[in-house]
Write a structure and sequence with these properties.
Radius of gyration: 11 Å
Strand order of the largest sheet: 1-2
Order of helices and strands: EHHEH
Helix content: 40-55%
Strand content: 5-15%
Organism: Rhodoferax antarcticus ANT.BR
Largest sheet: 2 strands, parallel
InterPro entries: PIN-like_dom_sf (IPR029060)
Number of domains: 1
Mean pLDDT: 89
Number of helices: 3
Protein name: Putative Virulence-associated C
Distance between the termini: 35 Å
């Protein structure tokens, strides 16, 4: 499946915190492979939160 959406850091944080619930529900409704994140977003989520 070709990706349809790319998540940014803010949305990643919302999903990790489960807030707002609507963001999580919308993400859960997506098909596997339809949503991707960039390497930069991944690094920000992994290392930015730890700081």
């Amino acid at each position: 499946m070709k990706p349809k959406s790319m998540l940014d850091t803010h949305i990643g944080i919302y999903l990790m915190k489960h807030q707002p619930p609507e963001a999580r529900a919308r993400f859960d409704a997506c098909f596997v492979g339809a949503v991707v994140i960039s390497a930069m977003t991944l690094a920000e989520l992994e290392f930015g939160i730890a700081c």
